[in-house]
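Office hours follow-up: a student asked to see two folded examples consecutively, so here they are.
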Amino acid sequence: MRGAYYSQTKLLRRNLIIYKEMTHLLLIKGDCLEVLPHIPNECIDLIITDPPYNIAEGAVPIYDTRYPKGKRRKIGLEAEWDKFTDEEFLRMMYKFIDEVYRILKPSGTFICFTSDRYLSYLRTYIRNKGMVYRQTCIWQKVNPVPQMRKVKFMHATEFFFLVHKEKGHDNFRWEHGQHPNVFYHPIVSGKERTGHPTQKPVWLFSELIKYTTREGDLILDPFLGSGTTLVAARNLNRNAIGIEINDEYINMAKRRVAPEQRDLFGNFEFYFHDWQTSSQAIISEFISKLQKPKSI
């Protein structure tokens, strides 16, 4: 009996370890401004995202001339989902930041890509909310796309900002070493490329996640796109929620974090829900899965 007791205890401990190491990924199809109000208060460790910020404004069709006429595909950005007036964009972002403030933990971090034309407006609004705008950062593309129209320099930088919810409660992982606020990395190419026009490198998001979270933390990307945040979170053993409204990009994300990849990337569970047909309690139910039992 005593031996059986110790065997059962050992098995239970092993199961708890497996449960603790399990990574949970949730993909929701829906409009983030409709979904976010249903996320509980102060439950997210990191919000990292790349919302549409009007870079399609004034875009003209650019075609890949490697192909014969009639078969050339567009390579310029003409996405309708990325066309706003400045007033529409800022109104959307202010509403979004209100939700960011509510759902971030006191020690939470907010990282958001945007255009330099909006930085001052967003920085002012964030500070007026009582959050700590730490700094503006830059992704320096070492292989920028050539300027097809030849009227200006190549666009080789993208801006993003680092914000902490409360002063003195930040979760910055300085033990990973000093790092400048400029990140040098190529644009996505090769097998990593999905066809999303503004896809971000997994390496870049992995670096940002590594410096702002710990294993088992919960990450949210409300403008998921092709799923880079879920991929980086899975690789780093972080739990994550991604919200995306576009069917094409949802399918991209599903392929990149498919359950059949579990053998390659460890122990994780992937869930998908359509916000229009699912219970609005799915997020609370998902977060409840992350409550880890105490080890014996």
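And the second, which I mentioned at the end of office hours:
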Amino acid sequence: MLRFLLLPLLLSGCATHRIQALEAENLRLRQDLSTASSQLALLRAQGCGAGGVLGGTVGGTVGRPPGPPVDQEEAARQEVEAMQALLEARTLDEAGDGLAAREIYARILATWPTGRSAAVALRRLEELQILGRPAPALAVERWLEGEAPAASSMQILVFWEVWCPHCQNELPELSGRAAAWKSQGITVVGMTRLTKTATEEKVRDFYRQNKISFPTALERDGAMSEAYVVTGIPAAAVVKDGIIVWRGHPARLTEEVIRKLKAG
């Protein structure tokens, strides 16, 4: 199985390092694509073609060196095409164009449902399915820190838990950016379910120690996580004028993406 399906996102450390890790993952995908393309070229050079079952009898030609079965070449071709589509989708996705990326992820699943790229496309497609939908009202049990934010044209929801090490790295970063975003009419709201070892006291201690600037609420029965298809944390979603316009990992929510979402 190709490396890009096995490598986890290295999302610890400062924001710069996290973005570098995402770029490194895409570089590995390009390298895997290059390897797969070379393998396809080799299969073709061995005599595979569309005219027969074996390379030695392609098109009825006798005397060519024996080659691998045509279905092997076809499988390699499909793998290369699927990886090319996946790379295109991820490029659009990271640029903040989730709707265009969603179409390509869906095409990958429809065209290459059992291919190696399908598993990557499936999970991301599930998250992107909510784009364009009206945002649900905040389902809050109570506010653990701060209070309900005033209405704004753009709101960023951050799903996190106090025991999660990646969340512990992400929230202080977001807090610093939230202050600048506030002047642009963008509010940030934390959402937690208090799972595992989390308690209200631990949340408050974390907020005080890290001077987190945006409020955090306890979800009501996990309704917000369900509505925003949160299966891993930290996670984030952007709502603009009442419509969900972005969904992904907070590390992907760059200033460039924010500008694009505001302009859109």
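Two things to take away from it. The radius of gyration is 23 Å. The chain has two domains: 3-128, 140-263.
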